[in-house]
Fold this sequence. Notes:
mainly beta, 4-stranded antiparallel beta sheet, Methylamine Dehydrogenase, Chain H
Amino acid sequence: MFINFKIAIASSLSCFASIGIAFEGQPVSFRNEVATILLENCVACHGPKKAEGGYRIDTFDELQKPGDSGAMPVVSNQVASSELLRRIASKDESERMPPESDPLAKPQIELIQRWIAEGAKFDGDKGNVSLNMVIPPRVYPDPPATYPAPVPITAMAFSPDGSQLLVGGYHEVTVWSTADGTLTRRIKNVGQRVHAIIFLADQKTIAIGCGEPGKNGEVRLVDFESGNLKGVVGRTSDVVFDVAVRPKAPVTDASKPTAPVNEIAIAAADGIIRIVNTDTMLETRAIANHADWVTAVAWSDDGARLASASRDKSAKVFDANSGELLVSYQGHGAAVRGIAFLPDGKQLFSTGADKKMHRWEAEGAKKVAEVPVGGEAFKMIRGGQWVFIPSADKQLRSITWSDNKVAQTISGYQDWVLLPAYHAGTNLIAGGANNGEVRLWNATDGKLVRHWIAKP
């Protein structure tokens, strides 16, 4: 990740990393046991973006198709004819999977062998969904009672009434009082690192984008008041960086349907943007147009378009309903980490590693203006009459979007400022830093309201 995490907390074992041995006398479960092994060890080389040897095993249905050699990965009740088993059990390093890696543990191989011998049955709901969606939601370890060091603040959101500030922690979201900076409660059962927190349209459910680098990522839908898990969506093989709620389109033509209010866009390190219906918990579209991490996503105010930022040095605009690419902006020449539409949807702002804010047109991607922001810029947001840009120069800037001028340069941080949050009702800006510091400011005059270290 581009953020250097300073905390050193020993990783706990989770069910996702287990080898998954079936209970004695019970049939092996593809959903609970086999899928986890395949996801952790095989999908990187045999998935939708890369299919070595013509084999894809990212879904159960794909696992039933032959590769370029014509050999079947899995043949029900026929252990000797199953190419998958032959490859993972091979003693020949030139044939054994996974390549250039340690072989699977003997219990893992025996588990897959037993599953095939028992009929290679599928016990999930749909065979055409990714293995991420087949595996039951993980139960994560509790966070440490107290942190040995602060966690860099990579996710933050105000509660709907502005009285609380939600901050990403280690396997949790911490909730702080904006009145005095005290910790009010902790929302547990969350992925290792949290990169996005956002309230859904009901203002009662929070979507938490989280994961463990290089291993897993997902969005957890959690009831804010109780902290109870309501569902898990957008599962992927790497961390989720951003989540954006699709706004409802204004009704201008009764003959045309309005944009749904129950969709979220998910940006992840696997380079895919996922659109998920949060009522059905189903993925409705997947956009695989970037060549590297998707670091941020943003909807236009009318919900008709979706924009994305990526480490592949581009920012893109898509038709929100079809997923069709409309335009690609290449002006940064460096990793892009923030994106936002202007209210009319005709122009966008983007920020990134080139230390500038770019303003460009949604039609044709013509650059309109650029504003220096002092250092590498991270995830930006639009709020009120401003866009708020955090920077590696230890400052947070508000830029008035009507004239592209810096309205406030907020200093006082001792480390990189990684992201802002804005609450319109209280006119407060929160800026979170790499050293775990939170600072609250008045958006109009830039005066400090209070600050604290978000460390339980």
